[in-house]
Amino acid sequence: MNGVEERARAFWQRTEQYQKLGHDRFAAAAFVAGVAGKLEGPVLDVGTGKGLMAMALARHGVDVVSVDLSPDDSELAAFLARKAGLAERISFLVKDARSLPFEDGHFGCAAMMEVLHHLDDGAPVLSEMARLVKPGGKIIIADFSEEGFAMVSAIHRAEGHEHPRSNATLDNAASHLASLGFREGGRAEAHHNVAAWFAKGPDSL
Known about the structure:
The protein is of the alpha/beta class. Helix content is 40%, strand content 24%. Strand 4 (107-113), helix 5 and strand 5 form a beta-alpha-beta unit.
């Protein structure tokens, strides 16, 4: 068994562990991907991790560019996307989301799920997402609800370590995006996540 298959097995074991606690990771990603309504591609998925959000976005019929700092996670995400029959819609790139090689306004939407709490300072990533979304485009940001954070923390503590959580929050993100000309279109909570979406430009809602 090669490395990516071993990581895939660990992913499915963790997914089952969450499921037993009442958390469906795939349903959570589908909820976040749908929170802003109709999406225009291509879509940028920031901090893709295991690719759940990228796959959920691809199921909306848009092309997705997934970026993550981890080569292992990107490889696993691409492996899972192939297994799901979604590989043709998703490009997986190992890149730093604070500086990406795309022109201003290249994307119709940018999304980030369960990433904020890993960032010491969310502003550089959010600013880059804002730059890359075209006028009238959307940004979707989601992170765990307090119930979700409690669930994840309990799992990590049972394994002998702490789940990291920075001071970057959805409210902080909303304030920063407002300063960059985005208007919040709405928020919703489900599947242990709170998701908000924002439109670029004063007349875009």
